[in-house]
Amino acid sequence: MLSPLIRKKIEQKFGSPIRYPKDCDALADAISRECRCKISGSTLRRLFGLAKGIDKPRLWTLDTLSNYLGHDSWENLMNQITGNKIEKSPKIESVLSKNAGLGAIYSVSFGKNSSVIIEYKGRNLYEVIEQEKTVLLRADIVCIEKIQQHLPLLVESIQRGRLALDGVLIGTVTGTTSIKLLSKSKSVASLHHTNSNNK
Fold it and tell me: How much is the pLDDT for 187?
């Protein structure tokens, strides 16, 4: 569920309190129109405590709510609320996997609605931590030699549990539109812990 402070900010922006499921549907329409990306009323009902569901919202959902409130990411919204200094990371044009540090976590976006968060495991292998509208699944182990801005992401192979899958190209239309280093060495567990604390 959303914190009372975030809930209040959303209600102020929306111009009305969110008390009933129909309010969530109207809010979903408002967010989808303003942010030009689809968010469902059922997701908002769970976040506002009007329906049972997920304990930890996906980062994409939190980023969408942040965009609605005028921030480019959930992290920046949290920094603004808590008064933490926002450090802008330098723009990343490319990542050569052999030079990435073990445990480095990257967010790679393809247009407005498609993205993947991956953690480097060594030997050109990454674990998928989160994904939105890609063919990958959470916990996939993917082989990527290089991530390059403006080009599709070439995933050379996918290990999905016991299955070894062929490689894929992601972002064939848009190419890679942004590459962000979320952490140089943060573990998956601590990333999830941070996200859950930001609810």
Answer: 45
